[in-house]
Write a structure and sequence with these properties.
The structure holds two protein chains of two kinds.
Chain A (H helix, E strand, L loop, with lengths): L19 H5 L1 H4 L22 E9 L10 E6 L19 E5 L6 E7 L4 E2 L5 E2 L3 E6 L7 E7 L23 E6 L2 E3 L2 E2 L9 E2 L1
Parallel strand pairs in A: 1-10, 1-11, 8-9
Antiparallel strand pairs in A: 1-4, 2-3, 2-7, 5-6, 7-8, 9-10
Chain B lengths: L22 H5 L6 E2 L4 H4 L31 E10 L9 E5 L25 E5 L5 E7 L4 E3 L5 E3 L2 E6 L8 E7 L17 H5 L2 E2 L12 E4 L2 E3 L15
Parallel strand pairs in B: 2-11, 2-12, 9-10
Antiparallel strand pairs in B: 2-5, 3-4, 3-8, 6-7, 8-9
Classes of the chains: A mainly beta, B mainly beta.
Chain lengths: ~200, ~240
């Protein structure tokens, strides 16, 4: 026998289910009057520094069909690469946003400022990116991925560099479509499957 | 610079593809996840203040009517503590819940089950944990309900929980079940957790000592989020 370890174990996940909106985006579910407004409506307030961008996409299942019940959350740094808790961060960047796939088309839209590059421990560099967390019926543990930008220099990014099959890195690149707009589709399974993360 | 998160122990979590839960078959990644040590994107996260929380937010019995009327159902108190893997309480973190009404019907534009809506029940609530990570809700016990999967699948009574922690990488959604429910063992969603001992951690015990006579029954549900690794050999200024 050995001494017991002192750590607890994370609570197991269960699917968010199709009615996740009731708890997280009540107005989407048709529940109004409990809270003044939904949480996480925008990651930025008026006056946020940087380039305002709009990212549109869909979450596609293994047959290519868009999920109509997905909920997504994003978290990001400001235009200077500082997270909201860090000294000197732009007070107009809350960094967090919550949004749903449209109940008919499955399309989602995120309007934010493009984040700056960031640094991690040991000098690791990260190109501008937005962390994304996806839950839905049939997803048993929330899926983590990142939105990078095809029009940025991603060559020194420490995470993209770890993707062994180089073409798969492209699944994390939002493609510019003009006027500060980007397209970012998430493929849960099959051809072009998005790289999902365990960080 | 913040401390890295402890790696997620995937063996405690559900498998992503579970054929008896049919929707998971086309919504589960088939390729391995890309693993590496957490970075600032996972080690930081949104914080929410007390100004967010309204006086009725953690009382689902009355929050849909802002205190004017009460929902129908068995009155219950759900309470517990949010901790991290180091055993410390997680203070001032947002806990959100949602659930069906006492008849097993959700107030959602896409729920078409013919059990009636309760005009006095919305089905969502939220609260912030206190200085020690404790939280509580008042609600009614949700009903079981049938759902389209196999020919006759029923969800056990459950309350959905969404917890933030203090880092985006701690984000967790799960479900609380109720002690003694015979539908837990028949539920293909519960069965996505392969380790029965882990599934038991989602089953809240009835605690009579915390129940109130002539008022409510109490169920305890503790939640553990990922912790942070701390070493004296890390996080020192360069050159030391």
């Amino acid at each position: 026998m050995v001494q017991p370890t002192e750590t607890l174990v994370e609570t197991p996940s269960q699917t968010a289910g199709p009615y996740v909106h009731i708890g997280c985006i009540p107005s989407f579910a048709g529940v109004t009057g409990v809270y003044p407004q939904d949480l996480g409506l925008s990651p930025i307030a008026d006056g946020a520094k940087g380039e305002v961008i709009t990212i549109t996409g869909a979450v596609l299942d293994g047959t290519g069909w868009p999920l109509r019940d997905a909920m997504l959350e994003s978290w990001q740094a400001d235009a200077a690469g500082l997270y909201p808790e860090q000294d000197g961060a732009d007070p107009a960047v809350g960094g967090f946003c919550r949004f749903a796939a449209d109940k008919d088309s499955g399309e989602f839209t995120l309007r934010t400022v493009k984040p700056g590059p960031t640094r991690g421990r040991n000098g690791l560099q990260f190109a501008p990116h937005i962390a994304l967390w996806i839950v839905a019926r049939g997803i048993n543990l929330g899926l983590c991925t990142r939105i990078y930008f095809a029009d940025e220099d991603n060559s020194t990014d420490a995470l993209l560099a770890r993707i062994e099959q180089r073409p798969r890195a492209e699944t994390l690149l939002a493609q510019p479509t003009g006027n500060g707009e980007y397209r970012f589709d998430i493929r849960l399974q099959g051809s072009g499957e998005t790289v999902f993360l365990d960080l | 610079m913040t401390d890295p998160l402890m790696p997620r122990r995937h063996e405690v979590h559900p498998v992503s593809r579970w054929p008896e839960y049919k929707t998971s078959v086309t919504r589960s990644p088939s390729l391995p996840l890309l693993s590496m040590e957490s970075t600032p994107s996972e080690e930081t996260g949104p914080r929410f203040g007390h100004s967010l929380i309204g006086p009725h937010d953690n009382n689902l019995i009355v929050n849909f009517t802002q205190g004017a009327d009460s929902a129908v159902g068995e009155r219950i108190r759900v309470y517990g503590q949010v901790m991290d893997e180091t055993g410390r309480g997680v203070p001032h973190t947002l806990v959100e819940v949602w659930q069906a009404n006492a008849g097993g019907r959700y107030r959602h534009v896409k729920d078409t089950y013919f059990a009636p809506l309760d005009p006095h029940f919305g089905g969502c609530g939220r609260t912030l944990t206190d200085d020690e990570g404790r939280y509580e809700f008042m609600t009614i016990k949700p009903g079981a309900y049938p759902w389209p999967n196999r020919a006759n699948d029923w969800r056990p009574a459950h309350i959905h929980f969404s917890i933030f922690g203090h880092a985006f990488g701690q984000r967790l959604i799960s479900q609380m079940y109720f002690e003694g429910d015979p539908l837990i063992d028949r539920c293909p969603i519960a069965a996505t957790i392969q380790d029965r001992g882990q599934l038991d951690r989602l089953v809240a015990p009835l605690v009579m000592q915390q129940s109130r006579g002539m008022d409510y029954l109490a169920y305890r549900f503790d939640i553990v989020l990922r912790g942070r690794r701390q070493s004296m050999f890390e996080n020192r200024p360069e050159g030391m």
